[in-house]
Task: structure prediction
Amino acid sequence: MNNLVIAVDGPAGAGKSTIAKIIADKLNINYIDTGAMYRAITYKCLKNNIDINNEDEVIKVAQNTEIDFRDNNLYLDKEIVKDEIRTMEVSNNVSNVAKIKEVRYLMVDVQREIGKRNSVILDGRDIGSYVFPNADYKFFLIATPEERGMRRFKELTEKGYETSLEEIIKDIIKRDEIDSNREFAPLVKAEDAIEIDTTGKTITEVVDCVLSQINL
Result:
Protein backbone atom coordinates (compact mmCIF):
# COMPACT_ATOMS: atom_id res chain seq x y z
CA MET A 1 0.00 0.00 0.00
CA ASN A 2 1.34 3.44 -0.94
CA ASN A 3 1.96 5.99 1.77
CA LEU A 4 -0.89 8.41 2.43
CA VAL A 5 -0.12 12.11 1.93
CA ILE A 6 -2.46 14.82 3.24
CA ALA A 7 -1.67 18.47 2.51
CA VAL A 8 -2.95 21.27 4.74
CA ASP A 9 -2.14 24.76 3.48
CA GLY A 10 -3.15 28.27 4.45
CA PRO A 11 -1.91 31.56 5.88
CA ALA A 12 -0.35 32.07 9.31
CA GLY A 13 -2.73 31.46 12.20
CA ALA A 14 -5.46 29.72 10.19
CA GLY A 15 -5.21 26.66 12.43
CA LYS A 16 -3.13 24.41 10.18
CA SER A 17 -0.76 23.02 12.80
CA THR A 18 -3.42 22.48 15.46
CA ILE A 19 -5.73 20.65 13.07
CA ALA A 20 -2.98 18.66 11.34
CA LYS A 21 -1.62 17.37 14.67
CA ILE A 22 -5.04 16.10 15.72
CA ILE A 23 -5.70 14.48 12.34
CA ALA A 24 -2.29 12.80 12.48
CA ASP A 25 -3.12 11.36 15.89
CA LYS A 26 -6.57 10.16 14.84
CA LEU A 27 -5.25 8.52 11.66
CA ASN A 28 -2.05 7.29 13.31
CA ILE A 29 0.19 8.92 10.71
CA ASN A 30 3.16 11.27 10.98
CA TYR A 31 2.72 15.03 11.30
CA ILE A 32 5.19 17.33 9.55
CA ASP A 33 5.13 21.06 10.34
CA THR A 34 6.96 22.39 7.28
CA GLY A 35 6.75 25.97 8.52
CA ALA A 36 8.79 24.92 11.55
CA MET A 37 11.63 23.98 9.20
CA TYR A 38 11.87 27.56 7.95
CA ARG A 39 11.52 28.80 11.51
CA ALA A 40 14.45 26.59 12.50
CA ILE A 41 16.66 28.07 9.78
CA THR A 42 15.56 31.57 10.83
CA TYR A 43 16.28 30.80 14.48
CA LYS A 44 19.74 29.47 13.64
CA CYS A 45 20.52 32.59 11.59
CA LEU A 46 19.39 34.93 14.36
CA LYS A 47 21.24 32.93 17.01
CA ASN A 48 24.45 33.22 14.99
CA ASN A 49 23.95 36.92 14.13
CA ILE A 50 23.46 36.22 10.42
CA ASP A 51 21.86 39.08 8.50
CA ILE A 52 18.45 37.75 7.41
CA ASN A 53 18.52 40.12 4.43
CA ASN A 54 21.79 38.65 3.17
CA GLU A 55 20.45 35.81 1.04
CA ASP A 56 23.86 34.28 0.33
CA GLU A 57 24.62 33.99 4.04
CA VAL A 58 21.19 32.53 4.81
CA ILE A 59 21.62 29.98 2.01
CA LYS A 60 24.98 28.94 3.47
CA VAL A 61 23.34 28.38 6.85
CA ALA A 62 20.59 26.27 5.26
CA GLN A 63 23.12 24.22 3.29
CA ASN A 64 25.01 23.43 6.47
CA THR A 65 21.99 22.57 8.59
CA GLU A 66 20.54 19.14 9.29
CA ILE A 67 16.77 19.13 9.69
CA ASP A 68 14.53 16.13 10.28
CA PHE A 69 11.17 15.18 11.78
CA ARG A 70 11.02 12.09 13.98
CA ASP A 71 8.28 11.09 16.41
CA ASN A 72 6.53 14.41 15.72
CA ASN A 73 9.60 16.35 16.90
CA LEU A 74 11.67 18.74 14.81
CA TYR A 75 15.40 18.16 15.01
CA LEU A 76 17.76 21.03 14.22
CA ASP A 77 21.30 19.71 13.91
CA LYS A 78 20.26 16.64 15.93
CA GLU A 79 18.71 18.74 18.75
CA ILE A 80 14.95 19.02 19.37
CA VAL A 81 13.68 22.61 19.03
CA LYS A 82 10.28 23.80 20.20
CA ASP A 83 9.45 27.13 21.86
CA GLU A 84 12.67 28.80 20.74
CA ILE A 85 11.45 28.81 17.12
CA ARG A 86 8.06 30.32 18.11
CA THR A 87 9.22 33.71 19.38
CA MET A 88 8.06 37.01 17.90
CA GLU A 89 11.59 37.66 16.63
CA VAL A 90 11.51 34.45 14.60
CA SER A 91 7.93 35.13 13.44
CA ASN A 92 8.90 38.60 12.25
CA ASN A 93 11.75 37.25 10.12
CA VAL A 94 10.69 33.81 8.90
CA SER A 95 8.87 34.98 5.76
CA ASN A 96 12.05 36.67 4.52
CA VAL A 97 13.92 33.39 4.93
CA ALA A 98 11.14 31.24 3.47
CA LYS A 99 10.93 33.33 0.30
CA ILE A 100 14.53 32.47 -0.68
CA LYS A 101 14.28 29.99 -3.54
CA GLU A 102 17.42 28.04 -2.68
CA VAL A 103 16.28 27.60 0.92
CA ARG A 104 12.90 26.31 -0.25
CA TYR A 105 14.59 23.83 -2.60
CA LEU A 106 16.54 22.41 0.33
CA MET A 107 13.53 22.18 2.65
CA VAL A 108 11.26 20.71 -0.03
CA ASP A 109 13.80 17.94 -0.64
CA VAL A 110 13.63 17.07 3.07
CA GLN A 111 9.82 17.15 3.06
CA ARG A 112 9.54 14.90 0.02
CA GLU A 113 12.04 12.43 1.45
CA ILE A 114 10.03 12.18 4.68
CA GLY A 115 6.88 11.64 2.59
CA LYS A 116 8.54 8.70 0.85
CA ARG A 117 9.29 7.01 4.17
CA ASN A 118 5.94 7.39 5.92
CA SER A 119 2.27 8.22 5.62
CA VAL A 120 2.15 11.90 6.52
CA ILE A 121 0.04 14.98 6.99
CA LEU A 122 1.98 18.15 6.26
CA ASP A 123 1.00 21.74 6.85
CA GLY A 124 2.51 24.77 5.18
CA ARG A 125 1.98 27.32 2.43
CA ASP A 126 2.73 25.34 -0.73
CA ILE A 127 2.28 21.66 0.14
CA GLY A 128 -0.66 20.93 -2.16
CA SER A 129 0.43 23.32 -4.90
CA TYR A 130 4.14 22.50 -5.08
CA VAL A 131 5.65 20.06 -2.58
CA PHE A 132 3.09 17.27 -3.06
CA PRO A 133 0.91 18.25 -6.05
CA ASN A 134 -0.37 14.67 -6.18
CA ALA A 135 -1.28 14.47 -2.49
CA ASP A 136 -4.18 12.14 -1.72
CA TYR A 137 -6.08 14.92 0.06
CA LYS A 138 -5.61 18.69 0.01
CA PHE A 139 -7.11 21.24 2.37
CA PHE A 140 -6.75 25.02 2.45
CA LEU A 141 -7.61 26.67 5.77
CA ILE A 142 -8.43 30.36 6.03
CA ALA A 143 -9.59 32.80 8.72
CA THR A 144 -9.81 36.57 9.10
CA PRO A 145 -6.61 38.42 10.13
CA GLU A 146 -8.36 39.45 13.36
CA GLU A 147 -9.20 35.86 14.26
CA ARG A 148 -5.72 34.65 13.40
CA GLY A 149 -4.17 37.50 15.36
CA MET A 150 -6.20 36.69 18.46
CA ARG A 151 -5.14 33.03 18.31
CA ARG A 152 -1.49 33.98 18.04
CA PHE A 153 -1.85 36.58 20.80
CA LYS A 154 -3.30 33.99 23.20
CA GLU A 155 -0.58 31.50 22.30
CA LEU A 156 2.22 33.98 23.00
CA THR A 157 0.77 35.46 26.19
CA GLU A 158 0.19 31.97 27.60
CA LYS A 159 3.89 31.32 27.05
CA GLY A 160 4.82 34.54 28.86
CA TYR A 161 5.74 36.71 25.89
CA GLU A 162 4.85 40.41 26.03
CA THR A 163 3.25 41.65 22.82
CA SER A 164 0.17 43.46 21.56
CA LEU A 165 -2.75 42.18 19.52
CA GLU A 166 -2.39 45.13 17.14
CA GLU A 167 1.27 44.31 16.50
CA ILE A 168 0.48 40.65 15.82
CA ILE A 169 -2.35 41.43 13.36
CA LYS A 170 -0.06 43.87 11.56
CA ASP A 171 2.64 41.19 11.33
CA ILE A 172 0.15 38.60 10.04
CA ILE A 173 -1.03 40.91 7.26
CA LYS A 174 2.60 41.62 6.35
CA ARG A 175 3.41 37.89 6.27
CA ASP A 176 0.36 37.22 4.09
CA GLU A 177 1.63 39.77 1.58
CA ILE A 178 5.17 38.36 1.53
CA ASP A 179 4.02 34.72 1.36
CA SER A 180 1.45 35.36 -1.38
CA ASN A 181 3.72 37.47 -3.57
CA ARG A 182 7.03 35.64 -3.34
CA GLU A 183 8.37 34.60 -6.72
CA PHE A 184 8.90 30.91 -5.96
CA ALA A 185 6.15 28.61 -4.62
CA PRO A 186 3.92 31.33 -3.13
CA LEU A 187 1.05 30.82 -0.72
CA VAL A 188 -1.75 29.72 -3.03
CA LYS A 189 -4.74 27.41 -2.87
CA ALA A 190 -4.31 24.36 -5.10
CA GLU A 191 -7.12 24.06 -7.63
CA ASP A 192 -8.26 20.73 -6.18
CA ALA A 193 -7.94 21.73 -2.50
CA ILE A 194 -10.96 21.86 -0.20
CA GLU A 195 -11.22 25.31 1.40
CA ILE A 196 -12.34 25.54 5.02
CA ASP A 197 -12.96 28.89 6.74
CA THR A 198 -12.05 28.33 10.40
CA THR A 199 -13.26 31.76 11.57
CA GLY A 200 -15.56 31.28 14.54
CA LYS A 201 -15.29 27.49 14.41
CA THR A 202 -14.12 25.29 17.24
CA ILE A 203 -11.17 22.95 16.77
CA THR A 204 -13.53 19.97 16.93
CA GLU A 205 -15.74 21.43 14.20
CA VAL A 206 -12.79 21.92 11.86
CA VAL A 207 -11.35 18.46 12.59
CA ASP A 208 -14.73 16.86 11.89
CA CYS A 209 -14.99 18.80 8.64
CA VAL A 210 -11.58 17.54 7.49
CA LEU A 211 -12.19 13.94 8.55
CA SER A 212 -15.54 13.89 6.74
CA GLN A 213 -13.64 14.36 3.47
CA ILE A 214 -11.12 11.56 4.06
CA ASN A 215 -12.05 8.04 3.03
CA LEU A 216 -9.68 5.32 4.21
About this structure: The mean pLDDT is 93. The chain has one domain: 5-202. DSSP finds nine helices and eight strands in the chain.
